[in-house]
Amino acid sequence: MALMQVNFFSDVLGMETQMNVILPQQTSGQIGVKNSDTCGRIPTLYLLHGMSDDHSTWLRRTSIERYAEDLGIAVVMPTTHLGWYTDMNVGNRYWTYISEELPRICRSFFKDLSDRREETFAAGLSMGGYGAMKLGLGASDTFGAVASLSGGLDAIAVARGDLGGGRFWWSIFGDEEQVTGSDNDLFALATRLKESGKPLPKIYMWCGTEDFLYDHNIRMRDHLKGLGYDLTYEECPGDHQWKYWDQKIQNVLDWLPIEKK
């Protein structure tokens, strides 16, 4: 695998930003590394961080490069700051950036990345779980499968102040009335997508039963099941920490609908 940090300019954000990218590499001489078959288009996983993190965190807290090796898959890990993958009420347009501009930029930089929705995926933890789910429900023409680990999935509850934070949430989502029924409301987004006749993503969810976001995940699980989504849901004892996400991202990679290289 090849690992690179890419510094580049985003027109949507109006500033320099960063991403880490893992790419398959054909090699026969590296000790302890399986040769990656890079023939053809490369499936791509956009791997999203949580609130306290940035583009480096998945590399620092997990062995994502090693986990992705057998799949022949590219992994894109962008920085998205504290924007909650939204076009913020007051701030930057992180939703437009992550759903439209970033895939376009990545495919222009790395010509072998697949542009097929069946080979374009998103996953993330906590805030990134919300972002990945939103990509699946709000950009299903681009993303064919998405995974949420311990996702903060109820933006209405967040905007209402259930998690604390006061005016911070208003700068992101606005007030509770602004969120309800909007594209930041994943429950409404899932319903609209189902009724639209557009392609539906495959969805994987995991949350620990002691996680403070467990209720968000149970309600989303039941909502998606009721709508008939292709949902794989798992839970086990655990709370909101990396020792679980390190394990479960391996489950996500095994679950992704791609051929093992």
Spell out the key features of this protein.
261 residues, alpha/beta, 8-stranded mixed beta sheet
Percentage beta strand: 15-25%
Q: What's the number of helices? A: 10
Strand order of the largest sheet: 1-2-4-3-5-6-7-8
Helix content: 25-40%
Largest beta-sheet characterization: 8 strands, mixed
Mean pLDDT: 94
Envelope shape: globular
How does the helix and strand content classify structurally?
alpha/beta
What's the end-to-end separation, in Å? Answer: 13 Å
Q: List the helices and strands in order.
A: EEEHHEHEHEHHHHEHEH
Rg calculated over all Cα atoms: 18 Å
For the secondary structure, the number of strands is 8
Question: Summary?
Answer:
Helix 4 (127-138) runs parallel beside helix 8 (186-196). The mean pLDDT is 94. This protein has 261 residues and is of the alpha/beta class.
Q: Could you please describe the fold and organization of this structure?
A:
This protein has helices at 57-61, 64-69, 94-109, 127-138, 155-160, 167-173, 176-179, 186-196, 214-227, 242-255, and strands spanning 2-10, 15-23, 44-48, 74-78, 120-125, 145-149, 202-208, 231-236. It has 10 helices and 8 strands. Helix 8 (186-196) packs parallel to helix 9. The two termini are 13 Å apart. The longest helix has 16 residues, at 94-109. It is globular and about 55 Å long. The chain has an 8-stranded mixed sheet, sandwiched between helices. The protein has 261 residues and is an alpha/beta fold. 36% of the residues lie in helices and 20% in strands.
